[in-house]
Design brief:
Distance between the termini: 29 Å
CATH topology of the largest domain: 2,3-Dihydroxybiphenyl 1,2-Dioxygenase, domain 1
Largest sheet: 5 strands, mixed
Shape: globular
CATH architecture of the largest domain: Roll
Helix content: 10-25%
CATH class of the largest domain: Alpha Beta
Order of helices and strands: EHEEEHEHEEEE
Radius of gyration: 15 Å
Oligomer: single chain
Strand content: 35-45%
Number of strands: 9
Length: 130
């Protein structure tokens, strides 16, 4: 058996990222532990995931100029992340109330309802559902 265990999103700050993913998106905080970089500096191991999901998102604070340059642009301006929800209207309303930035209005497509939103780092996501 194989599955995608984690993906990484590079962020500016840990606590702001937790507030966005847990508070605004409703994700679960799975891990938040002290850790050490390869060269001995302190960092945090921070993993969130949607309720009921298996794939976690490692929220990694940018470390150095190269990583800072990709914050919010991990997919070169394209939608790079896709969040499927069971109740599109409820999720959209909750996210709007939490101040999530949307790039347009929801629309209906053959595969369901969709709207693009922007995460705390500036990456573009599709919110998908029925």
């Amino acid at each position: 058996m194989s599955f995608l265990q984690r993906v990484t999103i590079v962020v500016d700050e840990y606590d702001e990222a937790i507030e966005f993913f847990v508070g605004a998106l409703g994700f679960e905080l799975i891990e938040d532990a002290a850790s050490i970089t390869n060269d001995g500096r302190e960092k945090r191991w921070l993993v969130v995931r949607p309720p009921g999901g298996e794939t976690g998102i490692l929220l990694a604070r940018a470390d150095g100029a190269d990583q800072e340059a990709v914050v919010g642009n991990q997919s070169a301006g394209r939608v790079g992340f896709f969040l499927h929800v069971d109740d599109f209207d409820a999720a959209y309303a909750r996210m709007r109330a939490a101040g999530v930035e949307f790039a347009g209005a929801p629309r209906s497509e053959p595969y369901g309802r969709v709207v693009v939103f922007v995460d705390i780092a500036g990456n573009r996501w599709d919110l998908l559902g029925e």
